[in-house]
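Reply to dn_fold:

You asked what the input looked like. This is it:
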Amino acid sequence: MTGLAAGAALGLAAAVAFLLTSLVSIRFVLGVRRRRRAELRPRLERELATFLAADDVPTPVVPQGALALALVRDVALEALAELRGRERSRLTRLLEQHGVVDDAVRGLDARSARRRLAAADALALIRSERAEAALEQHLADGNGAVRLACARALAELGSERAGADVAAAVTADPGADRGAAADALLALGANRPDDLGRLLEPGTPAAVQAIAAAVAGELRLAQHAGALRSLLDSGDDEVAARAARGLGLIGVADAVRALIELIEDAQRAWFVRAAAARALGTIGDIAAMPALTRLLAVDDWVLQSNAAGALAALGGPGAEALREALGSRHKRVREHARVALEGAS
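and this is what came back:
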């Protein structure tokens, strides 16, 4: 037994020594890479900035090797998030020339879902038409987040099939990743705004309709005002609330009557009525004043706050209604009226 124990101890010591040696080697390699990146990055940033600023500057010379290619990709992706127009197009062409796009396309075939997702996200930023066919193929990826990222990348490209691709990706599993779905719909709304309409139609899952309604409002897509008005009648409260907010952001005057009906419907959720009140204030039609004044008297803090804010947004007539509310026998009504008047002054 003593011999066996001694042998085991020696084996363990050897294993520990091997691990320590490996860790030292790994740290050394990582340290070299960090130093190399630190040396290369400032020069690459200067050369890229100079190249993008002037047409007569030659294409930057990128050092060879995987490390340099990865650094070019990282620096360029940071810049692409801020660039528009000519500078963005020039940087995309540069990434195509140096193989960054081809490398990202190969990443779509990686075994790791995390790497495939990173590749799709990179291609969404780069927006190279060279990647379109590969992105189409990977819409069938087994990972939902990767499928959504590929759909978003195609929407960023403004592909003619983007509407169908995004619709298929977000409706396949509507509750899977709402953040990724929102990113895909934002890209679609920004680059193919008319195509967003298919996701506001009846039969679309409510979770997707809600995101599409939010995007239509945030991007002020007036062409979808009719669909948003229809969604005020949705049986899903989140959909109705997002539609109401969108109508307010777009400023749809002919939705005032429907929004008034919504705030007066005591059967609807409080946040639906609150969204409708805010929308009426944003639109600014004084026809909403009587309904908002009645809502101010409802025994609900949030509804009272939103009604007071909406009345203040109506200008003179709304301010007059709030001044009258200062004489209410209900303390909370008086407080909301006072706060709204102070905020408007």
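Residues 284-345 form a domain with the Leucine-rich Repeat Variant fold (CATH 1.25.10).
Hope that clears it up.
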